[in-house]
Amino acid sequence: MNEVIANGLRYLTDIDVAAMTVYIKSLAANGESEVITPSSDELLAGQTLYDTHCQECHLSSGRGGFRKAPPVAGSVLVQAKNPSSLINVILYGAQPAADIPASFYTWEEMADFGHKMTDAELAQLSNFLRASWGNRGGRVSAATVANQR
Amino acid sequence: MSGGMIVDETEPSKFRDWSAPNLTSAKSGLARWSIDDLQKYLKPGITVGRAPWDP
User: Fold this and answer.
1) B21: how many CB neighbours lie within 10 A of its CB?
2) What residue numbers bound the domain in which A52 lies?
3) How many structural domains are present in chain A?
4) Residue B30 distance to chain A (closest CA, Å)
5) Alpha-carbon Rg for chain A in angstroms
6) Cβ of A29 and B29 within 8 Å?
7) How far does A44 lie from chain B, in Å, by closest CA?
């Protein structure tokens, strides 16, 4: 999305951006993710992984750090019905767009964590992310993570 | 608009799924985003507590 905004959307006129946003906000709720309620053991395991690998940049609030890491609390990517993108970002990391202007708000490169966690651990972390800070997302299984490797 | 999927060919004959987020007013989508939030996000790319994130 960085590239889309940096190389395209930011050049739109204010009127066009306003028209797009009014249209998007007019869309009725659809495709709601199922809501998971992890057990306390699952949440604790996921939170331990978050505290170890993620909290330094995304903060305990999940709101992310300025010019450090994006928020995971309220993130539509974290809550997406299909967790593929969330899993990919954790497995393979994320990079800011290469040609993004220096003045443009961006993030530090996120390291890949695929080699630091098992499929089961990555599923626990994903489920913690999808069930915390008011987030709503369906359950992620170790098999789903394995499929993304 | 409720979130689709694309398949990225990361190297010859190797594919990876990516999911797009829900852009409707679902609670797991943009229910908590105001029009002002969206405008600030799409134009300069930042608004309070939200920001673009690759892909």
Assistant:
1) 25
2) 34-148
3) 1
4) 7
5) 17
6) yes
7) 23
Nearest CB to A1 within list B3, B16, B53: B53
Which residues on A lie below 8 Å from B27 (Cβ)?
Answer: 29, 32, 136
What are the residues whose beta carbons fall under 8 Å from the beta carbon of A24, sequence distance 6 or more?
B1, B23, B30, B38
Instruction: Answer whether residue A20 is part of any domain.
Output: no
Asked if the structure places residue A27 within a domain, the reply is no
Instruction: Tell me the chain A residues in contact with residue B22 when contact means C-beta distances shorter than 8 Å.
Output: 30-33, 76, 79-81
Q: What is the CATH number of the domain that holds A61?
A: 1.10.760.10
- Residue B18: its H or E element: strand B14-19
pLDDT digit of tens for each residue in chain A (149 aa)?
666 776 777 788 889 988 999 999 998 888 877 777 888 899 999 999 999 999 999 999 998 877 788 889 988 889 988 999 999 999 999 876 666 665 555 677 889 999 999 999 999 999 999 999 989 888 999 999 999 98
Cβ–Cβ of A30/B2 closer than 8 Å? yes
